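Bench log. Compound arrived from synthesis this morning; before running ITC I wanted a structural hypothesis for how EPU sits in the protein. Inputs:
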Amino acid sequence: MSGAAAMAAIRPGALEGVVRGRASYGEPLSRHTSLRIGGPADALVVPADLEDLRALLRFAHREGIPTLVLGGGSNTVVRDGGFRGIAIVLGEAFTALEAQGTTVRAGAAVRVSRLVAFACRGGLAGVECLTGIPGTLGGALRGNAGTQAGSVGDRVLEAAVVLADGTVARRARADLGFAYRHATLPAGAVITEGLFDLERGDPAAVRRAISKLLVARNRSQPVESRSAGCMFKNPPGDSAGRLVDAAGLKGMRVGDAVVSPVHANFFINQGRARAADVLALVAAVRARVRDHAGVELELEVHVVGES
Ligand code: EPU
């Protein structure tokens, strides 16, 4: 489908009567990504509730319109031409967070940091390892986000999803295929909720673990800068950041896209960087690490949209 055809299919107002939630047309996705980069989406919808999300997906499925779920907008590079289709951001309606005993149910739009704080307050252990991870739980589950101390999938009992045709389904942990920075979901499925299996912990010990991790992260990562999180997956047994650093590439830049001088696996938007700059920097860094260490770095971030 050409860009022009998709624009015609989703002209301003096209979603009136289809969704009750907020729809905007030609919305710059730079407003919705942590890198603050990305061209416009034909439409961006914040569904009013689960039924609204289902109606939207049914419509997109029937009309053959691509969808893109943005989550918290981290871990994503949206190209400068934007997205021909409907970008979806889960809002308020997906922020429920409750515990029953040691089982925690959390909506996909709950920030990872809010889940960590909630567990800490309730003296529940098991998600301290997620301290400092940006973005929302939906995105974290989608990519099995984690740190060296553990990943979000380790504690998942099940996830609620809406399939591309609008059907609701539940996926047990065993069906989610969690691996390093990976989960298996049918194409176009949207995660709406996660159920987590935590355990009773000593509140003071949980708090200590969290502050230790926060201190380490604030020291070793450019937390105040605009980035997408780690750019590359760690190759088995090594760290992508260490490899990029060892190749002497901290501070390397294309336009306003810069390899962070703090942690070399973070690429920073220092001002007016475009996706094309970030991707040119990615290509240059990969080539240099290949030459220097013989390692082929694999992207962790998702690159979406049109050039
Ligand atoms: N290192 C360098 N130079 C650098 C960066 C790192 O020499 O510029 C060295 C460090 O000194 C250390 C080793 O590389 O010896 C590992 O570094 P670090 O502890 O920072 O961990 P990492 O492997 O680079 C991983 C995750 C991070 C997560 C941290 C902390 C990946 C790709 N990265 O980084 O996750 O926050 O551990 O647990 O798995 C992300 O996934 O987006 C992410 C940032």
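What the model suggests: The first helix runs from residue 3 to 9. The first strand starts at residue 22 and ends at 28.
ITC booked for Thursday regardless.
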